[in-house]
Amino acid sequence: MTSARQMLEVGSASLIVTDDNTPYVYSPGDIAWVLTSTALVWIMMPGIGFFYSGLLRQKNALSMISLSMMTLAVVSFQWVFWGFSLTYSGTANGFIGDLKNIGLRGVLGKPSIASTRIPSIVFRVYQLMFAAFTPMIAVGAFAERAHLGPLMVFVFIWATIVYDPIACWTWNSNGWVSVLGGLDFAGGTPVHISSGTAALAISMYLGKRLGYGKEELAYRPHNTTYVVLGTVFLWFGWFGFNGGSALSANLRAAQACLSTNTAASVGGLTWMLWDYRIEKKWSTVGFCSGAIAGLVAITPGSGFVGTHEFLAAVISFRSQLWIAAAILFGVLAGTVCNFATQLKFLIHCDDALDIFASHAIGGLVGNILTALFAQASVAGSDGHTVIPGGWLDHHYIQLAIHLADSSAGICYSFVMTTLILWAMHFTPGLRVRVPEDTETAGIDMCEIGDAAYNYDSLETELKPSLSHPIDNMEPDQR
Q: Is the model's pLDDT at 371 over the cut of 50?
């Protein structure tokens, strides 16, 4: 615990925080931006719940919305208890941190390990949102065939054994990818590759849903409005996800927000056009899926590639490539992820929500493009970040670093997720797969005891008028 804690606002441009009798100066604007970004990322949790819910059958619609909030709650405890310390302790090794900051010990006014511009407590609550959102992506693979109780145990273990080490080696200054010079602005490997690959491992462990390959599972999303609503929440929150990762209110944050919106827009249009060639329909679900793919792909590169003023683009061909970068992220993500949805048929795996295609493949696309298009000038727009850049800056080793990082993330997440699932499988009370009768009846009523739509209540309210009106009249009224 700190021996002295004092906060004094000095003028309008600085904030002095005294921790252990040492004064630190911060910008209230930077703190406000990061805390605002925290709230933006928070709303992505129910966003992905609604997105997943809309894609499922009605009898399982409530389970995904409920799981999104349950996952947030579990990881919130895990992060306070030891997750933050395992990821961001200053005495971490190249793979994982220690328990120096267990229970948030020593986490208050000192500068954060990622940026001296904000105090550690602000960085901690912001990174909590990343830690909670990541397992929720993977949990979607349990759709329609898993007990909810054991999933909470899975989330706690997975966040500790999978997310924390990968985030540590990527973002902790002592991590091996960070030391090599890996460029991952907001979570290509720790968030998307890790969760997307975990979803594949989960799908392979669970096996196929009842009726897989038959007409009963050839259904359309039960509520496309939920899919759109979830996409809106995710797109809105992603400005905090990527823009907030600048950890300061500066031009780099603005660049990240602009490239994020561009990639999402182009990704949505691209996926929708690919679907149009087959069905000759402007698919709403296709647009939403493409927008998510574009957001996933731009995540690692959003603070390293972006857009620029039109005049500079005309003057310099190099800047034209800079302009094209965010657009190219969207085009390739919308294309590659769209076609990657067919991989589940090749490997005979029931990935109900195409999480592997959208997140693991999308994250891989983003990592590769970041290595190619990252520029020192973009990263340096915050006034203090110095990087060698990617291929556009003739730093060709960057691609090898990113391929090593991506491969390590895929292998580690797949193996560890599989081991966790099988360890739970042989632990009494923690087996995940529900019996056939529960799957047939639906997870909502069997596991939650409620449904997303209460038709029984509606029927009760309408019951007096269900029969013909004349049958309810008195004889002298007929």
A: yes
Q: What phi and psi, each to the nearest 5 degrees, are found at residue 107?
A: -110, 100
Cβ atoms of 264 and 61 closer than 8 Å: no
Paired with 111 in beta bridges are 119
Structural domain contains residue 276? yes
pLDDT tens per residue, range 412-468: 999 999 999 999 999 999 999 999 999 999 999 999 988 888 765 545 555 654 444
Q: How many CA atoms lie within 13 A of 220 on its CB side?
A: 8
Residue of higher predicted confidence among 225 and 326: 225
**Residues in contact with 470: Cβ distance below 8 Å, sequence separation at least 6, in sequence order:** 478
CA gap 159, 286 in Å, rounded = 30
- Number of domains the chain is built from: 1
Largest CA distance in the chain: 95
Q: What is the average pLDDT across 83-107?
A: 90
Whether 471 has a pLDDT exceeding 90, the answer reads no
As a whole number of Å, the end-to-end CA separation of the chain is 83
Which runs of consecutive H residues, i.e. helices, occur in 210-360? 224-238, 251-279, 284-298, 310-315, 317-340, 343-346, 355
Question: Would residue 458 count as lying in a domain?
Answer: no
pLDDT of residue 152: 96
What is the rounded distance in angstroms from the CA atom of residue 186 to the CA atom of residue 189?
A: 9
The number of C-alpha atoms within 13 Å of 411 and in the hemisphere containing its C-beta is 6
Tokens representing 93 are 């090794």
Sign of CA dihedral 192, 31, 326, 407: negative
Q: Determine how β-strand 5-10 pairs with β-strand 14-19.
A: antiparallel
**201 in any annotated domain:** yes
User: How far apart, in whole angstroms, are the C-alpha atoms of residue 439 and residue 447?
Assistant: 10
CATH number for the domain that contains residue 94 = 1.10.3430.10
Q: What is the H or E stretch that residue 149 is in?
A: helix 148-158
pLDDT per residue as tens digits for the range 255-302: 999 999 999 999 999 999 999 988 889 999 999 999 999 999 999 999
Beta carbons of 226 and 51 less than 8 angstroms apart: yes
Q: Which of 364, 411, 416, 358 is nearest to 159 (CA)?
A: 416
Reduced to 3 states (helix: H, G, I; strand: E, B; else coil), residue 26 is strand
Q: Which domain holds residue 210?
A: 23-312+321-431
Which residue, among 22, 11, 148, has the nearest Cα to 433 in the 3D structure? 148
**Residue corresponding to tokens 């805390």:** 35
Q: What is the distance of C-alpha 411 from the center of its chain?
A: 19
Phi-psi region of 24 (alpha: psi -120 to 50; beta: other; left: phi over 0): beta
The answer to whether residue 15 is domain-embedded is no
- Cα distance between residue 272 and residue 192, in whole Å: 22
